[in-house]
Each structure stands twice: as structure tokens, then as C-alpha cells.
Amino acid sequence: MNARSYRVNLSLSPLDFPVIMGLGQSSVSYQSEPHINRKNVVLTITKKYVLTDMQTKREHEVLSVKSDYEIPFNLIRSREDVYEFYKDAMLSLNEAYQYARTQLPGLPNIPFPNQPIENYKGEIDRVFNLLNSQN
Q1: Which of 55, 84, 119, 133 suits 40 as a labelling partner, its CA being 20 to 30 A distant?
Q2: By three-state DSSP, how is residue 14 classified?
Q3: HSE of 119, CA atoms in CB hemisphere, 13 A
Q4: Is 72 in contact with 8 (CB distance < 8 Å)?
């Protein structure tokens, strides 16, 4: 399944790197929200690149990418089908960050790897629970 072809909206936050003294730790967080619109599952996935100042323990959102997908019910047959949308959302975060690097060449090269399908178990279950509630 080509998840990108079902994306109906993409929103990017401005890039905002904080100044920190000492060590920082990078991470990617996500949240998602599925709901029904007619005969489609609307899946909103937000991926966030977060930098944590290890001295103060403050988290700072560097970049967030919100992807909205509208997927016809009949195209969601397996857990892997839903997982494709989470992978596409991560790809969108990578693309947004790499574009920012073209504008600000001093930014470090940070790839954001896809997480295994098991990391999204609860999120994928929510999509299937929503679909089952429609039957």
C-alpha cells in the first residue's frame, strides 16, 4: 500500500533548536488519533523530534510533523497496512528535517529510523477497534 497517496494534509512546525549547555539527548515521540469520516478511517499522526537538556531535564520540541490520512475501510486488511502510515509519517519527519538542513547547512545529519511494528501495537489496535465498532 502506498500510504503517501492517502495523505490529505501535512503540517510542519518551524524548526527551533534550543541553546543548551552540556549534554543533550535526542528522541522522537509520536501520537496518533484515529476517527471515522463516512467510509474512511481518518488517521492523524504527529511525529516530534525532541531535544532534552540533560542538565535541566527540560524537553524542547525541535520539529513536529503532523500527517493526516484518509484511508478507505476496505484497504485496511492487516496490521502491516496500518503500520505503513506510521512509517510514512516518520519518512515525512525525515524529509522535513533534511529540507531544513538544506536551509541551515550547519545542522547535524540526524536520521530518524523507523520503529518496529511492535512499538505501534496499541495504536494499531485502536484503529482495528474503531473499524470493528463500525460493523
Answers
A1: 119
A2: coil
A3: 11
A4: no
Distance of CA 30 to the CA centre of its chain: 5
pTM for this prediction: 0.92
Cβ-Cβ contacts under 8 Å for 68 (sequence gap 6 or more) = 7, 8, 9, 10, 42, 43, 44
- Identity of the amino acid at 33: E
Pick the more confident residue, 52 or 107: 52
Per-residue DSSP letter, 50: E
Q: Give the residue ranges of DSSP H helices in 1-135.
A: 79-103, 121-133
Q: How far apart are CA 49 and CA 33, in angstroms?
A: 18
Asked if residue 105 lies in contact with residue 13, where contact means CB atoms within 8 angstroms, the answer is: no
